[in-house]
Amino acid sequence: MNVKDILLARKSKLFNKEEINIIEKAFNFSQKAHQNQKRKSGEPYFNHCYQTALKLAQWQLDATTIAAGFIHDTAEDTDILLESIKNEFGEEIAFLVDGVTKIGHLKYRDRNDQQAENIRKMILALSQDIRVIFIKLADRLHNMKTLSAVPPQKQKRIALETAEIYAPLAHRLGMANLAGELEDLAFFYLHPSEYEWLEKNIKDKYEEREKYLEKIKLITEKTLKENNIKPLKIDFRTKRYSSLYKKLFRYNMNLDEVYDLVALRIIVKTVEECYSVLGIIHQLWAPLPGKIKDYIALPKQNGYQSIHTTVFCLNNKPTEFQIRTEEMHQKAESGIAAYWAYSQAKETKTYQKSKPIFANQKEITIVEQLRNWQKEFSDPKEAIQSLKIDILEDQVFTLTPKGRVINLPLGSTPVDFAYAIHSDIGDQCIGSKINNKIVPLDYQLQSGDLVEILTQKNKKPSKSWLEFIKTSLAKKHVKSSIRKSEKLITQNSNMAELKLVVEDKIGLIKDISSIISKNHINIKNINTSTNKGQNIIKILCGIDKEKAEKLILKLKKLKEIKEISYKII
User: Fold this and answer.
1) How far apart are alpha carbons 368 and 45 in whole angstroms?
2) What is the largest distance, in Å, between two alpha-carbon atoms of the chain?
3) What values do phi and psi take at 522, rounded to 5?
4) Is 365 a residue whose pLDDT tops 60?
5) Taking the CB of the first residue and of the last residue of the chain, which one, N or C, has fewer CB atoms within 10 A?
6) Do residues 111 and 127 touch, judged by C-beta distance below 8 A?
């Protein structure tokens, strides 16, 4: 492990002296910070940091991102504080490290589509700088490659999280190669028996197909040369286990029905040559009807461009060809990360925080928006940095102490959060901690906030909450509670005097009091007297007219009560 390999991995542009210095500094800083730490596998912890940075370099990312890759775990897994990183490396790198650290707090524990989508959106919300996601994806890739060292239960959780959060996120960013690799790594742990079946049944098929395609490749190269087309590259694309298994399900596990088990990929210089190659291949071999897909004219949502066609080759065997330009290939492999490779602008020495710009997913996809923005910005890097992707302007994504993501409208407060968890939590809320610090209840939540609600039994919502709470759910519960309290106050303000004419009996007052108490009515006073031979009991209690009449009906069931009346005081 050395810095030289990192520098050589970035082929698109050589690093200048200043960039080399920051990478070397981060290398040494990370190595020292993690020097006494080991991973579950027993390997030095620094190796993980190195592999993360190396992958970022292979993606052709800038020196700042690579440096942040080296130190991405120091704020969370060592005694080094974020403030120290800021003092040592500046605000930009500290910002990237902080973003990765916050994403690390997210935990996905169940197969809940909405929860998965909320987590993906939260990751994007935290990433005002797209490079935060690149670092996290590189981090996750190496973690998956070394997952065998952790306990089985944790393997399943991390694999599930990878399959349902990070692989789809990579797909969304157009990073198809990474997405496929993550899916395959997760597939091994989530579906071990299915993986074993594929290992047993596919290996020979792959080898057989590759030998066959070697022949097709030679014929293709010769024919293209005869037509004055010199491809930059012709290679094989082997279908990954995870996507293959999904496809086999549609074909009743019949491998002979999967034509793209191994496909030929032809990379040329221009779009015009893509269509020329398509025409030549169709002249050479008959196309399979319905198997021609032009993703150049109509790109996929994640920005993927290529021409796919399936033709009958030697021995009338269906064979898939993929045709694309070098630029299309790079973007297919690295997605948004590829845009950074084309940025030649010098980095500013001071990190400028610009106001994030939000993309409405309903209107435009991530990669499409980047493409459109690049037409307006002279610097592709500027376009990317100014974009806060895939998040609606009116949403924040917050965390419970257990890692559950709560999606709330922009401007929401801890009270809104409390009611989103449970109505009782909202009603009993007396305070809140945000990121382990006490904050007022009217604090406006930010994406990434870790929220802890402080409660007290028998606490009731305050009318003042209506002045700052945002969600309709919270407003509904607060208003309902206030109405109940006001009604109770009104009820308690009414007093009624019950007059009972009764037969003399030991324990009668006790029986009467018992009935009144069971109906949750407060007795203020009881007087007994005799008038003209009649025994009279007068009871003063907190009660309104409606309840008084209901109470009388229950008291009349006592045979000792001869007459009963009341008056509201």
Assistant:
1) 38
2) 131
3) -85, 120
4) no
5) C
6) no
Q: Are strands 318-325 and 262-268 parallel, antiparallel or unpaired?
A: parallel
Neighbours of 319 (CB within 10 A): 23
In the 8-state DSSP scheme, what is residue 530?
E
Alpha-carbon distance 59 to 53, whole Å?
Answer: 10
pLDDT digits (tens, 9 = 90+) for 173-227: 778 788 888 998 998 898 888 888 777 777 666 677 778 888 999 999 999 999 9
443 Rama sector, left if φ>0, alpha if ψ -120 to 50, beta otherwise: beta
In angstroms and rounded to an integer, the radius of gyration of the C-alpha atoms of the chain is 35
Q: Smallest Cα–Cα separation from 241: which of 288, 182, 295, 281? A: 182
- Whole-angstrom distance, CA of residue 214 vs CA of residue 328: 24
- In the predicted model, is pLDDT for residue 368 greater than 60? no
Count of alpha carbons within 13 Å of 236, Cβ hemisphere only? 20
Phi and psi at residue 325, to the nearest 5°: -85, 170
Catalytic residues: 76-77
Quote the CA–CA distance of 137 and 264 in Å, as a whole number.
28
Place of tokens 């997210």: 106
CA distances from 358 to 108, 126, 259 (A): 25, 12, 41
What tokens appear for 443 in the block?
A: 């604090």
